[in-house]
Design goal:
The chain is 46% helix and 4% strand. The chain is built from 5 helices and 2 strands.
């Protein structure tokens, strides 16, 4: 057990990383260098939501690791700050939520509600999602 204690002690006192959170896959920095064009383009598309209008749909595609998720999360973070509660967002990874039902259930969960893991029709889950979102009178960007 002394080897295990040694490992734990090293972990407690090791300072290889100043901030380990910077290495997490969902970390988005405060500034995104070399992405100004994409940031502006996405910002222009989503900006009408600040005035209560539904923005245009956006389909973002590209090679792995090119900054799609980082740009999207960055723009959404700035938009949400500016919206002061009028706009909400949810991030759904469709590799994890791989059915319509699961996506809708995750969206409902992001609104602070829940639905059973199974047992309801997808149409019923969609209806609950839409009704709850309409009752909040907010625009949701997914």
């Amino acid at each position: 057990m002394s080897i295990l204690n040694e490992i734990f002690e090293k972990a407690l006192h090791s300072r290889i990383f100043i901030n380990r959170e910077l290495l997490l896959p969902d970390y988005v920095p405060d500034e995104l260098p070399h992405r100004d064009k994409q940031i502006v383009q996405l910002g222009k598309i989503l900006a009408p939501s600040l005035a209560g209008y539904r923005p245009s749909n956006v389909f973002i595609y590209g090679l792995t690791g090119t900054g799609k998720t980082a740009v999207t999360k960055y723009v959404l973070r700035k938009l949400i700050e500016k919206a002061k509660g009028k706009v909400i967002s949810a991030y759904i990874n469709c590799r994890n939520s791989d059915t319509n039902y699961r996506v809708l259930a995750d969206l409902i969960f992001s609104l602070g509600k829940s639905v059973p893991f199974t047992g309801l029709s997808t149409a019923e889950v969609f209806s609950r999602f839409k009704n709850y979102l309409d009752s909040k009178r907010k625009i949701m960007i997914v």
